[in-house]
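hi!! sorry for the late reply, been swamped w classes. u asked for the two structures so here they r. pasted raw, havent cleaned anything up. first the sequence of the first protein and right below it the tokens
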Amino acid sequence: MKKNIRKILLLIFVMFLNVSVVKAASFSINVGSKSLTKGGSTKLTISGNDVTGRFNITSSDPSIISVSEDRAWIENDSYTINLSALKVGTATITITPSGVSDSNGNSTSLGAKSVQITVSLPREKSTDNNLKSLSVEGYEITPSFSKDVTDYQVTVQEGVTNIKINALANESHATVTGTGNIDIVQGINNLSIVVKSESGKDKVYTLVVNVIDQNPINVTVDDKTYSIVKLKDNFKCPELYTDKEIVIENIPIPACYNEKINYTLVGLKSEDGTIESFIYNNGKYEKYNELMGNSLRIVILEADDDLIGLKKTKSLINGTSYSAMTFENTSTSYIVYGLNVATGKKDYYIYDSINKTFALYDTKPLEELSKLNEIYLYVIIAFGIGLLLSLICIISLSKRKKKLNVKSEEENFNNEPSKKSKKAKKEKMDEEIKENIIKEDVNELKEIIANDSDIDDEYEEYDFLGNKKKKNKRKK
């Protein structure tokens, strides 16, 4: 009897086990979002359970919702397609199995499944860029917060180096920056909390944090007022400098020192809360500008001498204007005179304003060119002196020749009758010719009178010079 009962129980157990391991073929669909805005999209996933076959995908209105594929093949796995929202409205996506079977190859009949997608117009982006709240943890700001007030102040005790700012945007899609744990230094700290609206418009809230300094040390540099930083945490040493402590007005001051260049730096804070490094030397302060290029750290100085072949100019490096030199045919490379912070050596460096890099500038070619120019200059001077001497000799010979010519002319002139004597001689010859002509005329007249017996008139008588003498009458 007991054996029969055991057999019956074993049979029941086996039957139950067989039933429990039977799998029913099925599928499911999952959509990312059932609500879309025009122009948006989502994904639809078809997951098969012990099923293999094709699934048809249709949209009740493709002009509202379009499907990336109209069919999918499932082999006990999943398949994903895209749904795109084209216009406002509602469309139903239907997935219908076609010729599917279970894992044993048995044909199975599965009903279609569908999901409804609603498309609406996109929501206009919010322009709200106000804060809903603003506070400093552990402190009270003034005035009391109002979203329309953008300037606030808070005072904290001496020694505080960090505060926590809490702020919440008035609109959920807006973003807020400038909150959380913020480092501060002794004195005035100007902090900005920026709210950007969903549409991209910024609004700035300003928080002035005043860390009380019970005994400030104020100094004036280039007509600007600064206060000396007295807390080491507020002044970090640049690379290649070591921490050092100096005493100013009987107060220990954190400083930085570089043995190679013998520079001592202190931190000075301006009225707007900005801390900058200054070179400190026996109570005097000079702004420290260290420039980084490649592996070089350079402090630009004023050059003692100008390099030959270069022209003086100004170069804007990291927002600061420096004395520099440049070539005539370029405006992108500058030669500056600087102090190498690592080696302490002063030298000339070439600065590439495009790549913002420094490199040691080799002045030997310029020096050689300078020497060559000197040689050329000496040659030109020598040539000029020779040319000048030649001109002097030519001029001297010319003058000498001219003098000889003048002397020869004087001698020739002295050997010939003078112009005056020539004129007198000519006048004398003319007078003699005139006298001869007159004499000939008179004689001819006398002869005519003598031969004419019929004349009984008065006539004029002339002497041999042609002058009238007297009147005579001649009878017929």
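now the second protein. again sequence first, tokens right under
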Amino acid sequence: MRSIFSFTLSEMREYLVEHGCAKFAADQVYQWLYKHHEIDIDKWTNISKKIKEHFRENISFKLPEVVFHIQSTDGTRKFLLELDDGNTVETVAIPAQGRLTQCISSQVGCAMGCLFCNTGTMGFIRHLTVAEVVGQYMAVTKWVRENGDDPEIRISNLVYMGQGEPLHNFDNMLQATKVFMEEKGLAIGGRKITLSTSGLVPQIKKLNDFPAVNLAVSLHSTFDEKRSQLMPVNDKWGLTKLFEALNSLELREFRFITYEYLLIADFNDRPEDIAGLCRLLDTKSSKINLIPYNEFPGSPYKRPDDEKIEWFKNQLLKKGHVCTTRASKGSDIMAACGQLKSKEDKKNRGDESL
């Protein structure tokens, strides 16, 4: 049975016409789902009985189940969602002034095997479907509206930085992005969506066909030998191939490319690393986002001290680069960058629920 959350608007229009229904009803269905966040079709007052009966018999409205959630001292909430097949993924809601950002997962596990990432220890299990990607947004929105102080709260920003490599699941992430951006639905603008990649060169070359969203590239070193130590993907597509692909992109609304740079103590926080960034990145089309390393149990690396982080940032600013340091949110609940991992033992979930 196909999920209602798997349809783009154009697909919904085609589907209804194929089943003898009015094309315009697709716009109304989208508004009920994504404007009003109403999945009880009995409350869809302007939808025909014929469509409702067809949906009841042929279309699933089931969302991923919130198995548990945990809240950080900084307000960040991490959710464990269970999918139809029993697999689980984590997604994170991050509050900030004037916005609420959700960190979306694209896969169960990840095939990239990056040594700094807790998800990478899982290995790759499977891609998430379009409905499961969109379902993360819908399930978390439903939960925070029902359990928070604001029944109309809206997740305003999305970052594809949860579990998995988004470009490894290219087609499903593309379709889900169309759902997120549809003006008659959620209407999340492209400037409020960020796609992150570890550097899958063949997929990067296809990004000109992707909706115009922000692009973030996990760089982490400007030296092939060191980058390969952190990211096995660099063995196949090294820095030369990566930047050839990036330079082939039409920036359009991207405006610039953000380069994520994980700062690891005594590994990539040296003067020669600053020189490498200045050599490789253009000051006009690049933004550097420094991410102090978030440790996890068994991780082989350490976070630099605050003084070293500030020094590294200031050196780049002096060279004319746009450079920011990402505030670590949710690290106390293992919800920060690189810390997500599906829970496999359901018996232990109660220890982390509130």
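hope this helps!! also noticed smth abt the second:
The first helix runs from residue 9 to 18.
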